Amino acid sequence: MASQKEQNYANQFRMQIPSNPRYVSVARNFVYNLARQCNFSLHDSADLKLAVGECLLNVIKHAYLGKTNYPIFLEITALDDRMEIRIRDFGVQKNLSTIQSYDPGDYREEGIGLFLIRRLTDHFYIDQSGRGNKLILTKKK
């Protein structure tokens, strides 16, 4: 049964990892290698790798409160001009208005992960409209 708009899965990748920091490198390396395969520059591929790693570590630390036995879902869509990455968890939602913006002149490191993610991607959004969190990253070629 085809819908009005056919979903194209030719360039869509999905993976699930446990909320254990030891598996963050698996997802980071997958994203990096996929970006290189899709003709992203070495620099942009490394940016995506770092941004995804920061997102995953934030999920483990803040959404799952350090618990290592919960699922984290990644959906990656490789398009001609960009890569879109959605990271989904079913953990705790943090009040976004309480997240402090990182100030590079401040000695504390609170908020540096989100600061880096925003700097390394072209678009970053946190969707908390349902249960858990969905982090959406976009990087253009």
Summarize the structure.
The chain is of the alpha+beta class. The protein has one domain: 2-Layer Sandwich (Heat Shock Protein 90), CATH 3.30.565.
Structure description:
- Strands 1-2-3-5-4 form a 5-stranded antiparallel β-sheet, with helices on one face.
- The chain is an alpha+beta fold and 141 residues long.
- It has helices at residues 24-37, 42-63, 112-120, and strands at residues 12-18, 71-78, 82-89, 123-127, 133-140.
- A hairpin with a 5-residue loop joins strand 4 (123-127) and strand 5.
- The longest helix has 22 residues, at 42-63.
- The protein has a single domain (12-140), classed as 2-Layer Sandwich (Heat Shock Protein 90).
- Helix 1 packs antiparallel against helix 2 (42-63).
